[in-house]
Amino acid sequence: MSSVVESGTVRMADRVKELKSRGIDVISFSIGEPDFPTPQHIVDEGISALRAGFTKYTPSAGIPELREAIAEKLRSENGIDAKPSEIIVTPTKHAIFMAVLALVDRGSEVIMPDPAWVSYEPMVRISEGVPVPVRADEETSFRLTPELVAEKINDRTRLIILNSPCNPTGAVMKKEDVAGICELAVDYDLLVISDEIYEKIIYDAANHSPASFEGMRDRVITVNGFSKTYSMTGWRLGYLHADAGLLGGIQKIQTHSITCATSFAQKAGVAALKGPKMPVEKMVAEFRKRRDFVVRRIREIEGLSVVEPKGAFYAFPRYAFEMDSEKMGTYLLDEAHVGVTPGSSFGKFGENHFRISYATDMQSLEKGLDAVEKALGKLG
Ligand SMILES: Cc1ncc(COP(=O)(O)O)c(C=O)c1O
Predict the structure, then answer these.
(1) Are residues 145 and 80 located together in one domain of the fold?
(2) pLDDT > 80? residue 221
(3) Is 193 helix (H, G, I), strand (E, B) or coil?
(4) Residue 8: predicted pLDDT
């Protein structure tokens, strides 16, 4: 465990809380969860399940009606030929963790984008695998390309982790790039974990699930969840889909770790998948407005540049000041009272950037970015 670092996002959120508890008015751009309530029909279903006494263990892989609803969603929306028996219901982070633990042996190499979500690398290290970061910076608009991946493949490579839309950059993979990476996976007999948790929070772009590409069905673990799409972070509900050949090992870890996902949350999950789409559409429309504002405002600030994010609710500006991103995070917190996440938390190629989460109201975005501009202005 000594090679594993603490989550940079959680550390920053804790510092923001500490300053707030001292009465300092801090604006937080470090939160990775939608600032909307869970839609009412989903909450109601959870409450009904509790009232009806649905409070005991469920089948380990999840309740049949939720596994069926998920398989149906994957078939109709993602083009994945999914069966309910191939679904495991579990918190999304745990889904990724179980898949990595089950598939990565000591010394196996795992290709992943850099910058990328804070937990992929530690998960690989905990599994005694070797993380192989692939630089996915402004040169490719933060997108992972087949050319970049191909350079890193050798006979120890076991797995490629993809995340589109991407946290922290908001990059969305192009169809031809997904196709090219899938071809590499087939040619070199590699597995893929596709983390599609931001699938629905996407602007002027489309999600392409690798498991729907030819030859990929039995080599992809598709991961998704309810946290971001339905603003359900605290319900701890997500899922994975994998072919039976890959599922067995993962299922064993589920039974020996959390047994099953929370019972009443699973009932609420059925309501989320089968209920009205309106709340999600409204949320995404609001995120789009904020994205447009944040990009425009960042581009007005001297010393900052940003690639327009095509999905998720993050912007990842690069700054032109001589200061590492940990120091920049501390400087903005102390000087502007704005909490951002240092870019290096997401990998070494995230250095000289910081992540802004725009899952916060417009007024705070305006006020916070004004304060950032003022503080950066003092650096000359
Ligand atoms: C890219 C990515 N994958 C997975 C997760 C984990 O999601 P959950 O909190 O629903 O387990 C997150 C959460 O921030 C994320 O950003």
Answers:
(1) yes
(2) yes
(3) strand
(4) 67
